[in-house]
Amino acid sequence: MASPLEFFSGQIGKKLDNTPSAAGNWLAGILLEVSEKHIKIQYTIEPYMCNPTKILHGGVASLMLDDGIGIANFVAGSEYLMTSINLSVDFLSSAQIGEIVVLEANLVRSGANLNHWEAVIKKESGKIVAKASSNMIKTHIKISDLKL
C-alpha cells in the first residue's frame, strides 16, 4: 500500500477526481505540487461553483481551502488521520466563470496533536481571491487503515 505522500505524488499533473475526499473530487482540481509541508492545486471556475451573480461561491472557495489543507495535512506524515477543528476564511476578491485560480497551502506549525495551516487562492494575475487558516486535530483513525 502506498503512503499518502506517494499516492498524491503520483497524482501531480492529474485531475483530483479519485481521492479519498468525495467533496474534493467534485472540485476536480489539478494537483501541481505536493510535499509534507506544502500543496498547490489549480482549479477552473465552473458555472456550478458560482453563486447567482456568476462569481465563485464563498462556500465553494471555503471547500477549496479546506480540502486543499486537508490533502496537504493528509500527506504531512502523521500516523493518524487529522480533521479540521476550525477554518477562518477571508474573501478578498471575486473569480469569474472560466477563470483559473491556484490554491497554495503551507504548514505553519506541526505538533503532536495539532497542525496549523495557512492557505490562499489566487488568480493568474496574482490577485488574492480568498485566504484561510485552519487547525487540524489528530483523530483515533490510523492512516494505514485507510484504503489508498
TrEMBL record:
GO terms for cellular component: cytosol. Residues 55-129 form the Thioesterase domain. GO terms for molecular function: 1,4-dihydroxy-2-naphthoyl-CoA thioesterase activity. Keywords: Hydrolase. Pfam families: 4HBT. InterPro entries: HotDog_dom_sf, PAAI_dom, Thioestr_dom. Belongs to the thioesterase PaaI family. PANTHER family: 1,4-DIHYDROXY-2-NAPHTHOYL-COA THIOESTERASE 1 (PTHR43240:SF5). This is Uncharacterized protein (TIGR00369 family).
